[in-house]
Structures are given as C-alpha cells and as structure tokens.
Amino acid sequence: MPRVTVSKVKSYWRGYGTLGLAKKAVACVCRPFFSFHPLNFYVISGLPQTQHQPRCPLEFREGSREDIDLIVDLIKDKDESSVREHLTFLFDNGGKLFLAFSEGKLVHVAWLHYCPGIRQTHPHVTIKEDEAFMGHCYTLPEFRGNSILPAALQHMIRYAVAQNKKRCIGSTSPYNIAAIKGIERAGFSFVGKLRRFRLFGKMLNNQWDSSRLSGPE
After folding, report:
1. What tens digit of pLDDT does each residue of 61-88 get?
2. Count of other CB atoms within 10 angstroms of residue 56
3. What are the structural domains, with CATH classification, of the chain?
4. What is the Cα–Cα distance from 41 to 49, expressed in whole angstroms?
C-alpha cells in the first residue's frame, strides 16, 4: 500500500474537497475487500465554439522522452520511480505528450491517446479511429486556479482536429469538481457515467465504449 503522508492528504483535499477526502479514507479501509471507482465521461465534437483564456501566460509544445526528468520534477507529490515508470509506459504505447509553460516554467502536462494504443493505457475505454482520448492531466499545485486545464485541453483539441479526429473524449472522477469545471469550460459536454466496482480483486462493469454515443455531442 502506498505510504500516506500529510502532504499527500493536503494535496488530495485541495483537489477533491472534504467530502472527497472522507470518501477516499473510507475507500482505503475497504479497498482489500470492495472498492468503487466511478468515472464521468465528457465529449466535444470539432473545435470549441469559444477560446478560453488562462489567467497566466502559457506556451505549449509537444513533449518527448527527453522531458521525463522535467516532468518528474513537476510531479513531486508522487513517487519518483512510479512517475518514471508510468511515463515510459505511456510513451511505449503511443501516447502524445503536451507540455504547458508559464514564463519558462513547466506548469502542466497532459496526454492525448488514439485507437488502438488506448487499449493499453486505458483498458476500460474503447474509442473509434477518428476519435481521441485525453487523460493523465496534471497541473503544478501553485498554478491551479489559473484556468490552465481548459486552455490546455483546447490546445489539444485543435491538435486532434488537425489530425482528422472528429471527436475528443475525456473522463474524470465525479468528486473532482475542479477538473469537471475545467473540462466544461474547455467546451466538453457530459455524456454519461461508468460505475466500476472491484470485489475481492475482480473489477466489474469496467468498460465504456464511445459507440454508445449515437452521434456528435
């Protein structure tokens, strides 16, 4: 089990609030026997109707394996070896990394995934060839509240559309209110939930397929 520290608890509380923290504590106690992993899904077709402006200067560029050390320095509230392993895994499975800088400082990272590589990075999600999935977003804690997430998502949407992707999809925990607000400000619309359960180590109801959507959202 990962080590619980005061800094991790504070970071989770800032991201998910008191109710989310309480639910997380209960989940940790019950995890060996039963756990609940709900996800909200959001979709946007084509380009956003309006462009969202962040509250700080931002510059974007694509990332590469050479940026792993830079990202490890950014994500200091997680275990370094786990971050390195996860980044390598994402690169190995075709993920496209985007970095956001504010006055030369890395403040946000996010990934864009395509079919079929998403079957490795997000095994609970199925998308079509002309769709893209956004995930693994992280903003430097002291820069949160500057509307960086919606600006970064819109940058990725524009990139995906230029790659002939007709629809972009994203997901987040229903308890992460800050992420939900950012996703909606970027132009995404809520399209449904996935209620996942883990019972004695076995995951149940663990699949979401974009083919459930009847048309452009």
Report:
1. 999 999 999 999 999 888 899 999 999 9
2. 15
3. 1-32 (no CATH), 35-212 (3.40.630.30)
4. 20
